[in-house]
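Predict the assembly for these two chains.
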Amino acid sequence: MAEGDEVSNKQVILRDYVSGFPEETDFELRTSGKIRLKVAQGSKSVVVKNLYLSCDPYMRNRMKNSTGSYVASFSPGSPITGNGVAKVIDSGHPNFKKGDLVWGIIGWEEYSLITEPETLFKIEHTDVPLSYYTGILGMPGMTAYAGFYEVGSPKEGEYVFISAASGAVGQLVGQFAKLKNCYVVGTAGSKEKVDLLKNKFGFDEAFNYKEEQDLDKALKRCLPDGIDIYFENVGGKMLDAVLLNMRLHGRIPVCGMISQYNLEEPEGAHNLFCLISKRVRMEGFLVFDYYPMYPKYRDMVLPLIREGKITYVEDIAEGLENAPKALIGLFSGRNIGKQVVLVARE
Amino acid sequence: MAEGDEVSNKQVILRDYVSGFPEETDFELRTSGKIRLKVAQGSKSVVVKNLYLSCDPYMRNRMKNSTGSYVASFSPGSPITGNGVAKVIDSGHPNFKKGDLVWGIIGWEEYSLITEPETLFKIEHTDVPLSYYTGILGMPGMTAYAGFYEVGSPKEGEYVFISAASGAVGQLVGQFAKLKNCYVVGTAGSKEKVDLLKNKFGFDEAFNYKEEQDLDKALKRCLPDGIDIYFENVGGKMLDAVLLNMRLHGRIPVCGMISQYNLEEPEGAHNLFCLISKRVRMEGFLVFDYYPMYPKYRDMVLPLIREGKITYVEDIAEGLENAPKALIGLFSGRNIGKQVVLVARE
C-alpha cells in the first residue's frame, strides 16, 4: 500500500451526550472511516498509528454536554480522544520523524491525524513496556507525582490515605508515599484489589469500602492517629468520612471525584467545618499545569522502575472493539490497575 | 471596700448544652457570684475587672457538647468565657501590674480570676477606643489579617468576594482588599448592611443574599469575571454558588461557616468538583496559629485607624444583663458590625 492512499480507519464514536452511568451502547464502532497516511504538503501535522489507548476517569466529564469543564466535551458523532501511545507514520513537523514513538492526546481510532503535534511527548526510553506511557510514564504518573509531592507537601513519616488506591494514579501515590517513609493506607472496591494494595504495592493497611458499614470507623481502625494527607480520587461519602479524621494542618490534594461523575446531583460534603478546626488545606489540581515538570518526573521514576523499586499493574484490553467496554468499566471498578486498550502492536 | 474582701460578681451562665438556635433562655444571669479581688500569696494569677466582652460566632460551637472541636465546650452551670478587654486589679504575675489594660480570654462576669495570664495581650495604645481590642485590634482583626494576607495570598487587582461582609471580620477583609487595589464585593443580610458595605467600607459592590432568588446569578451579576479570593464566613448554599464562580487558581480561606452552626445536619457542598477544574485552594485556618504575628499586625493597622484609612463599625450592647441577647443575635444577623458588650466603663 502506498502511504498516500486512503486506508480504512476503525473509530470509536460517541453517539450522544451521556447522563447517568455510561453504557457500551453509548458508543459505536465505526468501520467506515478512511484516512490518508500522508500529511499534506506544507502542513506541520503528523499522522500516527495508534498502539495503546488510555482509559481515564476524567473522560466521563467529556461525555457530558457541559461548557464549564476544564476540557471540552466530546463531539457526538465523532471519534472520542484521549491519552495514548502512537507511532509516527508521516510528519510535516520538524520535531517528529517517521518511526518516532510518542504519547499524548490521540483519537480512539487506528490512525490519527494530529494537527498540533507540539502537544505530544516523544518517547525516548523503550526498555520499559510502551503501555507504561499511558500510565506510570504518562499522564497518570505525572498526576500522582504532582498531586503527592507538589500539592500534598509530604513529610517523612506522615499518615497517608488514598482512595481508588489500586487505580492508575492511586497505586503510584501509595508507592511514592512508602518511598517517603509514610504510613500508607488505601481503599478499593474488591478483595482482589485490597490484596494487591497490601501484597504488591506495599501499603501498610487497606480496606474494601464496599464491605464497611461505617467508613468513619474503618478509617479510625486503620488510621487511629488520623490522616495527614488524603489523596482524593472519589469524593462523596468517603470525603465526608475522611474530613472527620484529618490531622492538624492536613492536606487533601483533590485529584478526582469518580464516585460523583455519574450522578445528576452530586452528593454533598457535610463535614467541611473540619477544614477549619483542623486547619486543613484542600486543593484541586490538574496535571496539565505540571507537564513542564515531566522530564524531571520521568528521570526520577525510570530508575525506580528498572530497579524494581516501584511496580505498576495494568489491565490491558485487546482491540479497539473492546475499548468502550474497558472505558465504562472504570466507573464500576471492573479494572484491576491501570486500564489500557491495546489497539495495535508496533 | 478592701481589695481582699469578697465582692459580688454577676455572671452569665450557660444552663445546658444547646442544639438548634440558641435562645436567651439558654443563659442565666447569676447575681449570687462572689470573688476576692486579690490574688493568693505566691500565685501567678491576676484578677481583672471586665470592661468589654466580644460576641463571636465561634462561640456557638462551644455551646454544644462536642469533643472534636478546636475549643473546649462551655461548662453548663458555669460562666461562659470569650475574648474581652479588662483592667488588672491585682497581679501575682511579673508581666502585669495593677492598672494594666489587657485583652484576651476572660469570663462573662464582672470580675475574672485569670490563672494563666500569659495568654493575655497587654494593651499599649489607648488613643483608640478600648472596645477596638475586641475587634479590629483584637481577635477578629488578627483573623481578617491572617485569613486575607496569609491564607488568601492576594495579588493587586484581584476579584475578592466576602460573605458576612459587614461583620467583625468581613468589614476588615473588604477594607484590606481595597487597600490592595482589589475589586471587592460583599454580601450581607439586610439593606442597611449592604449600604454600609458600599458607603462606609468602600466595597465596589454588595448584595443582600436574602433578596436573591439565585445566588449564582447574583454572583455572576456582581462578579462577571469570577472570584479570585472568596473569604468564607458562612458555608452552605453560598459556598456552593461561589464554587461555580471561582477563577483559575482561586483561593478560599475558610474562616467560618456560621450558616451551619445551628443545624443538626450541615447542608452539603455539592460543587466541590470545581476545586479541580479551577485548581482552587480551600484552606481552613484558626487565628490562634497566627497570634505570634499580632505585634506586626497591630503596628500595621494602628496608623491606618489613626489616619482614617480604615474604619470599624461596632454594635455595642450595654450591660452584662444584655450579653446573652447580644450573643444570640449574631446567629440571626441582628448586629450591625462587630457585636460588643460593655460591662463597665474604666
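The CA atoms of residues 226 and 245 of chain A lie 5 Å apart. The longest helix of chain A spans residues 139-151.
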